């Protein structure tokens, strides 16, 4: 796998040589080397291969002289055999030994831009078709592989990372205020935005066609219109899911090297490790689980469950003591596309160790929480269908969460069923549009981002699909944590020559889970009941039936209140966020002091962390590429 970037002059003019060097330098920050490029009269394409030089795969970018087509791709195709059987005269000469990029190029030659509808796997690619004077870009259905782009006149720039695109000197150095507001408040994010005003991110399941006449973006995949059904009724949803899950894990084990698994003691990562261990056992492939353990914070430590995986299933586990590994440092290999810092020190040790063992892939359990925690909106769906028994379910939820029945009724019934009425009433009672913005955000920033023109629809039309299914979709694809951690893993691991793969983020598995009646995924008082049933006989019972999920709040508190307190206080003295009119520095310093003293509400923890990491990001971004600014109108208002 790899990183990609490039540019095309859609008018047909040649690219200036000085910029080609700058583009190559920008991509080199992403990984360890083996950068290859191809120059055409009207375009320049760069490929960063994570595999060492001399690997068996043909070097990219690929160029078909016969059809005058050039392709560069970061792709893993899981339906290779199916594609090869359909390609006919365009099939690669290497046949079954063809690389994924060669198969992808053949798919384009066979189906043109609709080739995206035939692909299964994780991918981001760009194809320049000289005869049609057209550039096609696309990303996979769940957006695992990132692709950013910008247009400067007739010049179209693209790259795995936004900073690769930002290398062009004419692009604006303005930050996107709406994206910053989403980050600071934890709201749903626009999948098509980046943190830079002039740069867009291609949303999941979309392809973009760029020509001299303009750009056209199309959504090529959507969730099935109707739930799946089994004709003979012989397969349970759990049995079908387990079969799909095993295939998803097997597809992600395709690599010439060894495989690591980032395994906590939770249901998701342990499920990935258990299935991968069984599959690899028959092939001689080595699977090693990398697990974080804690001595100073026992509530974060999951050694009993990790030990059960090792002793009962024989999973090889290597522990990493994490008490001193999480801080605000962002290593030199970290890419600064986003303020989200991830866990560079923790995962850095894992990745270095995996590299030393000849590994090329790290599996995670990411996505499992969002898919299998279900949605309590099943009660609203039942009530909408006339089932008054849903009210007893709401009362059970209230008891489980230890909140008042009226508050639970409002959250699970009134708000989802009558959102417009609720908004009007709240606006009338509060005399203004309700805001969930932290108190330390600058009033002008809050007003500008709240009153900005509403963005275009961010999700597909669910039609008559249930509220619960819609919430599961949102939790998986639109909640900020999902995209931040996936793309952070992609950038961070590339620096070590490792690719991170996520079996739960498989299109087949995602479609199946959304086809399951939501009531099977949610039971008041039970965490991930569907996955627990599915993993019976696969996981040790101690793991499968563990009563709670480990939370790392005490770890974050330790970092904020003790380990990094003095550094954070010094960061907030001369705040870049304050200079830009994003936060009120005095309010933020006061809130942080209260939090450290234990007198602030616990829910301040996350917003404070976002504010601090934004400040650190702005400083590092300034050191790397120079000062940034807001848009002209925003800057004038902030100065005033």
Overview of this protein structure:
This protein has 640 residues and is of the alpha+beta class. It is built from 26 helices and 17 strands. The protein has a six-stranded antiparallel sheet. Strand 13, helix 7 and strand 14 form a beta-alpha-beta unit. The longest helix has 21 residues. The protein is globular. The chain starts with a strand and ends with a helix.
User: Which class of secondary structure composition applies to the elements?
Assistant: alpha+beta
Name the poorly predicted regions: 228-232, 453-460
Biggest sheet descriptor: 6 strands, antiparallel
- What is the percentage of strand-forming residues? 15-25%
Gyration radius (Cα, Å) is 25 Å
Per DSSP, the total helix count is: 26
Query: How confident overall, as mean pLDDT?
Result: 85
Distance between the termini: 49 Å
List keywords for this structure.
640 residues; alpha+beta; six-stranded antiparallel sheet; globular
Short description:
The chain has 26 helices and 17 strands. By secondary structure, it is of the alpha+beta class.
Task: Give the topology, please.
Elements: E1 2-9, H1 17-28, E2 35-39, E3 43-49, E4 62-64, E5 69-77, H2 80-87, H3 100-111, E6 121-129, E7 134-139, E8 148-152, E9 155-159, H4 162-165, H5 177-185, E10 200-201, E11 206-211, E12 214-219, H6 237-252, E13 258-262, H7 267-281, E14 287-293, H8 303-313, E15 316-321, H9 344-356, E16 359-363, H10 368-372, H11 378-384, H12 390-401, H13 405-417, H14 419-430, H15 443-450, H16 467-477, H17 480-494, E17 499-501, H18 507-515, H19 529-534, H20 541-544, H21 553-563, H22 565-571, H23 576-579, H24 585-597, H25 605-625, H26 632-639
Parallel strand pairs: 13-14, 13-16, 14-15, 16-17
Antiparallel strand pairs: 1-3, 1-9, 2-3, 4-5, 5-6, 6-7, 7-11, 8-9, 8-10, 11-12
Helix pairs in contact: 2-3, 6-18, 11-12, 11-13, 12-13
């Amino acid at each position: 796998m790899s990183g990609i970037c490039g540019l095309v002059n859609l008018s047909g003019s040649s690219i200036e040589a000085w910029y080609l060097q700058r583009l190559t330098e920008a991509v080199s920050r992403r990984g360890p080397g083996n950068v290859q490029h191809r120059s055409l009269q009207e375009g320049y394409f760069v490929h960063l291969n994570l595999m060492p030089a001399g690997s068996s795969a043909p070097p990219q970018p690929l160029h078909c002289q016969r059809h005058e087509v050039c392709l560069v791709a970061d792709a893993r195709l899981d339906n290779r055999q199916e594609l090869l059987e359909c390609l006919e005269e365009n099939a690669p000469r290497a046949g079954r030994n063809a690389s994924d990029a060669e198969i992808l190029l053949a798919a384009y030659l066979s189906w043109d831009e609709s080739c995206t509808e035939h692909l299964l796997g994780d991918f981001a690619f760009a194809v320049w078709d000289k005869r049609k004077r057209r550039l096609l870009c696309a990303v996979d259905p769940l957006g695992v592989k990132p692709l950013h782009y910008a247009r400067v006149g007739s010049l179209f720039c693209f790259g795995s990372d936004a900073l690769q695109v930002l290398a062009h000197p004419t692009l604006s150095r303005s930050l996107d205020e709406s994206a910053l507001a989403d980050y600071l408040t934890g709201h749903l994010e626009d999948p098509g935005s980046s943190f830079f005003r002039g740069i867009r991110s291609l949303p999941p399941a979309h392809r973009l066609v760029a020509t001299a006449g303009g750009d056209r973006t199309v959504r090529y995949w959507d969730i099935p219109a109707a739930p799946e059904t089994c004709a003979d009724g012989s397969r349970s949803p759990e049995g079908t899911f387990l079969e799909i899950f095993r295939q998803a894990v097997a597809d992600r084990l395709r690599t010439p090297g060894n495989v690591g698994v980032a395994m906590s003691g939770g249901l998701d990562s342990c499920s990935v490790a258990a299935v991968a261990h069984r599959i690899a056992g028959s092939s001689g492939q080595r699977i090693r689980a990398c697990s974080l353990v804690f001595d100073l914070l026992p509530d974060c430590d999951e050694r009993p469950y990790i030990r059960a995986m090792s002793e009962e299933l024989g999973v090889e586990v290597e522990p990493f003591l994490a008490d001193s590994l999480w801080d605000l440092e962002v290593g030199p290999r970290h890419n600064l596309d986003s303020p989200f810092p991830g866990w560079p020190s923790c995962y850095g040790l894992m990745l270095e160790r995996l590299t030393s063992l000849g590994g090329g892939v790290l599996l995670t359990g990411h996505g499992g929480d969002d898919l299998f925690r279900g949605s309590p909106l099943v009660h609203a769906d039942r009530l909408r269908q006339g089932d008054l028994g849903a009210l007893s379910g709401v009362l059970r939820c209230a008891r489980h969460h230890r909140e008042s029945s009226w508050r639970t009724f409002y959250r699970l019934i009134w708000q989802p069923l009558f959102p417009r009425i609720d908004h009007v009433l709240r606006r009338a009672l509060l005399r203004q549009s309700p805001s969930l913005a932290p108190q330390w955000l600058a009033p002008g920033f809050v007003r500008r981002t709240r009153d900005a023109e509403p963005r275009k629809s961010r999700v597909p039309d669910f039609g008559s699909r249930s509220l619960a299914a819609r919430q599961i979709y949102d939790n998986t694809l639109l909640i900020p944590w999902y995209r931040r951690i996936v793309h952070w893993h992609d950038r961070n691991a590339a620096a070590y020559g490792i690719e991170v793969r996520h079996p739960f983020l498989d299109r087949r598995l995602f479609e199946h889970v959304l086809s399951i009646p939501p009531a099977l995924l949610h039971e008041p008082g039970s965490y991930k009941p569907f996955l627990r049933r599915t993993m019976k006989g696969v996981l040790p019972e101690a793991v499968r039936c563990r009563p709670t999920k480990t939370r790392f709040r005490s770890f974050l508190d330790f970092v904020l209140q003790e380990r990094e307190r003095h550094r954070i206080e010094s960061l907030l003295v001369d705040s870049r966020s304050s200079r830009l009119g994003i936060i009120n520095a005095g309010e933020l310093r006061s809130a942080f002091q209260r939090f450290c003293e234990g007198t602030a509400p616990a829910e301040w923890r996350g917003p404070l962390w976002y504010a601090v990491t934004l400040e650190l990001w702005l400083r590092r971004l300034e050191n790397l590429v120079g000062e940034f600014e807001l848009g002209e109108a925003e800057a004038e208002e902030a100065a005033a």
